[in-house]
Amino acid sequence: IRVRVLYDSAGPSLKRWLDRFNDLVTFVFCVAMSYAAFVMFWDSAHNPFGEWSLERSGTSWNPPFPSLAKGMIMLALMIMTLQALLHLIQSLRARATPPSHDRGGAA
User: How many angstroms separate the CA atoms of 32 and 29, rounded?
Assistant: First the structure.
């Protein structure tokens, strides 16, 4: 998420640092959310004695949808964390592009 007015007015070097900062903040946020989702899923998938027991909906049908939904949220956040990590690695490996010496098509 960028404020385009500031980003577009920045030079190439500052843009690289802004990209790195943005990717780092995104990665840290995703790690924190993944951890929170893991804790919620763990609590819903285990009883107080630590045994595997999925949380139930409490209706007459009583399906384990709450635990399954929390597991899917955790999985999605972990994939998002992996994507954020790959973006961070890519931005850390990015180098400055050399200045173009184009002379308007003259040979």
Answer: 5
